[in-house]
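Give me C-alpha cells for this 397-residue protein.
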Amino acid sequence: MPTRGSALRIVRLCSVFEPPAGAPVAVRFDPVGGMQTHTGELSRALDRRGVHQVVVTTRPPGTPPRQRLGDRGTVVRVGLPVPLVRQGYAVPAAAVVTRAAASADLVHAHLGEDIAVVPIALAAARRHRLPLVLTVHTSVAHTLAVTGPRSAALKAVGGWWERRGESRAQAVIALTPRLAGLLTAAGVPADRVHVIPSGVPDALFAAPQRVHPVVGLPRPRVLFLGRLHRQKGVEVLVAAAAALPGTQVVLAGDGPERPALQRLADRLGVADRVHVLGFVPREEVPALLAAADVLALPSRYEELGTAMLEGLRAGVPVVASDTGGIPTVLTDGVDGLLVPPGRPDALAAALRRVLTDPALAARLAAAGRERARDYSWEALADRVLGVYDGVLGAVRS
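Here you go.
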C-alpha cells in the first residue's frame, strides 16, 4: 500500500459530507448524494494511506459536531439546525478552516452548488501561504441549468466565484474530460487541470449481500437511486411509468421533491406501481441494485453520477440522460443507453428496449461491469495523492 502520504496534513472543505452511521436522515439538509459519497470515500482511502485530515462541513440535525475519521482524521461539522443558506455554516466554517490550515500542508475544497466554499478556501490558503486544490463536483458556471430566478442568481454569483477559484487554485480536479475541456477553454491552464472521477469502493460490493425486500415486487423493476431533487429529473421517470404498464418503478432516496413526485404518481394513475423507499443506507445499495432489472438516471444535469457507477459495478443495465459528464462514461448501445433529458417518451422507449430484449440487457450489463473497473477508489485515491505531490513539489521547489 502506498505510504507517500504518511506525513501529509490536509484541510478538506465541503458543504456536504456523508453522515455518520446511525445518524437520523434529515431530508431537508440533503444528507446523501454523490458529493457526500465522493468526499467520504476519498477521505477514507487517503486515511488508509497515512494522510492526516481535518474535514470541515455542515451539521445536519442529529450529527455530532466532531467525529473521528479513520485513524488520523477528524470531521468538524458546523452550522445551525435550519434548512436555509446551508445552515449559516460559512462564518464558523471560515474560522475552523483558517485555524486548521495553520498546521496543514494543503487546502482541498470541494465545490458543488455552494458559493461559500471558494472564498473560505481561498482566504485560508492565502493567509497561511498554502496551495489550494479545488475539485469541481458541479460547475455552476458551465453545467448548472437555469430554471428560475434562484438558479440564475446562483449561476451569476456562484459562477464568478467558481472562475475565481479555478484561476487561483494550484490544481483543479474535474470529474470528467468534458468539464476539463470547458475549464481549459475558459482559460484555466491545462497543466493545472486533472481529470479524476468519482469511484466505487470495492469493499461495498465484496461484502456478503442479503436479499433486498423489493424482490417481493413483481417484475420488471426499474430503479432510481439518488436524491429526489429537481436536478435529478425523477418526475420524468414517474411520467415514463405511465407508458410502461405492469412495470414497477422503485425510487430509492429522499429529498425535497418527494411530495411532488407522489402527487404526480397519483395524478397519472401510477401510484400503485411507483414505490418511494426513502433513504437507503449505503450498505444496502448492492442488494437493491441486484434486485433491479434496469437502473434509470433521468438527470437534467449531472457531472458524474455515483449511482451510475454503482449500477455499472453491480452489472445492472443503465439508461441515463445524455447530459453533462454521463456520456463520457457511457457509450450509447455499448455499456448503457442514453436518452435526451426531460423526455418521458424517450426514457420509456429506452427502458422498454432493455426490459423486452434479454440479450441487449445482458450485453449492456457485462460491458458496464467491465467499464466499472476504471473507477476503483483505491486507484483514484493514488491519483489524488499524485496531485497533492505535484502542487507541494512546485511550491517547495
